[in-house]
Amino acid sequence: MFSYLFKALNQAGVIDRYRAVNQTLLLALDGTEYFSSCAIHCPHCSSRRHANGSVTSYHTALTPVLVKPGVDKVIPLAPAYVRPQDGAEKQDCELNAAKRWLATWGADYGPLGVTLLGDDLYCHEPFCRDVLQQGMGFILVCKPGSHATVYAWVACLQRSGAVRTVVRRRWTGHRREIDTYRYAELIPLRDGDDALRVNGCELTTTDEHGHVLYHNAFATSLALNERTVLDVVAAGRCRWKIENENNNTLKTKGYHFEHNYGHGQQHLSSLLASLILLAFLVHTVLEWMDDQYQLLRQKLPSRKRLFSDIRSLTSYLCFESWEALMTFMLQSFEPAPPQPETG
What we know:
This protein is of the alpha+beta class. The chain contains ten helices and 13 strands. The strands form two sheets. Strands 6-5-1-8-9-13-12-11-10 form a nine-stranded mixed sheet, sandwiched between helices. The model has no long low-confidence stretch (mean pLDDT about 95).
């Protein structure tokens, strides 16, 4: 169903609206918990032991989405789940789930032209090589604490004048901000002659008094110059949409992603999580392609209110079709006709 709905959006031209840097699709990866309990567990749970000796069992889902700067809707793709793998001695992790997702879905999405976005967790050579092998590019957060070699090289390149700088000034409507971009090319991602070479860029935003308002750095497979570095950084910063407009929406805007709808003995919890993600995708399709639903969302911007109204109406009334339900709900927002005066 995830593939079927994606193809429908692609055929309708919606997917092309998400093309950004180098006309590629920005695919963000992130993991989020959807079940946690100190009492309930199954063979597929992950676990964490606390200082007091108690153990929490939990499930984590990798929730890939398509994002674009300036677009407030994300497109969910098929998830992957963090769960113990046969023959593995160590507990499964988000990065391993991402590798499995790439192996399963890379052939489907790679040919479309994809740039993968992720936090510092993904910015390691084996995963980057897997991404490149699937025909994708990447823009990944690169922090100094986990990439000492990268930052040592940048410092050396800075002394030799190989790090270039681009400065842009902006007026936000409230204050003037200064964006300082720095970038360099062909930096080894780790120590060693056979290390993967990446391009590095960073953005530091300050106010007129020099106070730092934002700072982040990225490693990328994309070429950088004075023009493209702005687009690459904008794309890299867009990664936050998977947290705000996907994970946060699933947990706080009416989907109750973390609610225990049922854990089961094997796969029930992940099945129900998949159905919630599928529902979110269906609603995204409606927001792009259903005129009545779009209008109703304008009238009822709160997802919780919309879901509650639909639940209440369909508990007491039978509608012939989805269109009939949408028409009925929209009619409630139309002004009532004037009543004739009586003597």
